[in-house]
Predict the structure.
Amino acid sequence: MDPPIVDGTTRLLGIVGDPIAQVRAPAMLSGLLRHNGVDALCVPFHVRPADFLTLLNGLRGMRNLAGVIVTVPHKAAAAGRADILLPRARLARAANVLLRGEDGRWTADMLDGVGFVAGLLAAALNPAGKRALVAGAGGVGTAICFALAEAGTSEIALFDADPARAEDLARRLRAVGAAARVASPDPVGYSLVVNATPLGMRPDDPVPIDPARLDPAATVADVVSKPVMTKFLLAAKRRGCFVQPGTRMTEYQMAAMAAFFGFLGGDWSPAAVAALGLY
Amino acid sequence: MDPPIVDGTTRLLGIVGDPIAQVRAPAMLSGLLRHNGVDALCVPFHVRPADFLTLLNGLRGMRNLAGVIVTVPHKAAAAGRADILLPRARLARAANVLLRGEDGRWTADMLDGVGFVAGLLAAALNPAGKRALVAGAGGVGTAICFALAEAGTSEIALFDADPARAEDLARRLRAVGAAARVASPDPVGYSLVVNATPLGMRPDDPVPIDPARLDPAATVADVVSKPVMTKFLLAAKRRGCFVQPGTRMTEYQMAAMAAFFGFLGGDWSPAAVAALGLY
């Protein structure tokens, strides 16, 4: 007799986003929690931006809630509302994880960049010394840029549909010592090219960067996780590039998330995710 | 390859209580939802009374939340906060289910009494014409009394540790035409005896009614669901009484809950619950 999927004793971990149907964390993390014998589930919380802060306030008193994972478009608001900002969230001005304290206070961290760089390192693609082009200076793009700066990229070129947003991020990266500047989306000359925009989630989205101009030796990454292989990544792969889909950033973030939320011990590795046979 | 336990598309049904570890609904309803091919889970929300209204407010905007089941000690507050009170909840001044409208409004109903009477009827124990003794005039006791009145019991005798609360309920029952009065907890002369107090949840709780004075031909019911067989029910069974545990009230309520929350079709019967092999 299998234990029930969920019981009165089960702890929860929410993931808050809008839209929410595309998120992988509920299946991945719930599978890992079960695999590791933890009586907890990761479940989707679908709220619009106008309702996000009211939800956070309502959840402060939910005693079996470990915390929430925060995804598009709530990452900046999450950092803005958190009671305690850990350094990565403070630098990024965005958070993708909020830990609920016993006293109802929210502690924020930003782990997208951690997962992104961990995924590259695991493929022996050390970003140290590389020239990087990043399209998208929103929450996830910002987190990735700071993680790349920390990992020692030699240069970060930024592009955003909103030039002021790109310029602001470049300035904040320079403030921590990174060689960052606003650039065009032309990927010629970069060995690491990242799409950190939402382009690719919808079938009719344009590609964020012209794949025909990618260096076949470049590493090309995307933050979109549904579809796993975006139009952009498929084109990059056809050119011979090593590609890292958004799911990989998520998979390599599971161990950091488990530790942040206090689920210690167990196997939270991408191999354990793969063993779940989800997708 | 099994579908994942939960995914980004999964709808939620919460159950709010304090304590929460003992509730059966998450395992039962989640099992039934899965069995019936519905992509939804019932999950526990543990909040203290001081945080209950803030939680309800926060959940108004959770678009993948069908609603919440409400249990001890929040049933009266749930009815107080609901935007729309259906007749059973209005009479009971308590609600155990809140449907979230698309516009964020809460519609309240009280299904405990429905499940309680459905359980008796399924065992061919029609309460019509019977004399009933009910200990406990709180939310669930009130719901059971109104359901018994509707089912045609000839008399309802009430006992509560707070005599004013019992008297108030008796008056409200008389207002809808029931022969209700406050009485002692002595079960002599009653053919239906109900514990609607929380006594029996803890191993050292006293029995709410003296089992030695039960008529062996009486039907004896409890609302406590953990343990399934309370000290009171075990003693009643030894005397030869037919006993209905709190789990039976819950099991016979599943179909009404599924319909209330809009999960139409499928098998929500106690036989389907039993087939889950949970307890």
